[in-house]
Structures are given as structure tokens and as C-alpha cells.
Amino acid sequence: MTEENLRAVLRVDEKTKTFTPIAHNLSAEKAEAKVNELKTEDVQAQVLEQTSRHKGRSVKSCELCKNAAENLSQKATTGLVEEEDPEPESGQ
Ligand SMILES: [Zn+2]
Question: How many angstroms does the Cα of residue 71 sit away from the middle of ligand 1?
Fold first, then answer.
């Protein structure tokens, strides 16, 4: 088996803008299937690329997923996006 990039799937609560990890260590295919499955239930989900395989067996007790979820939740609530945004209209 080769190391492939694994994905974590987080559920997005649009009202509270919170992210809840629901699965991890999934292949890209499985992650996509999961997201589509959730979509049919009107649940928003976000796929996150993992940098490494998560050790925990259960996603509920996975620190890495928990941290990632907190990170995303924070960004969603503050509206901060990590990208450089030079003045849009500097008019040259
Ligand atoms: Zn995890």
C-alpha cells in the first residue's frame, strides 16, 4: 500500500458556523461519497485533506480532527480567510 492523501469529513452547521468531524482517514473517493450522502440529507459538509494518517480509531476522540474543526469554526465566525488581499482598488 502506498501512502495516499487521506481525507477527513466535517459536518458544517450553517446556523452556528461550527464544524463537527464525522469521519477521518478516508480515501478521496470515500470522502466524496460521504459528502454526497450528506448532501442528500441537506447537510453541508467539508472535506479536509489530512497531512498524515490520524492515529485515533474514533473520529470523536481524535485531537487532530478536533483542532481542525475548531480552526475552521473560528475562521467561519470571524470571516477571516488566510489569503493576501491587497487593496482591491488602488487605481493606478
Ligand atoms: Zn482525525
Answer: 14
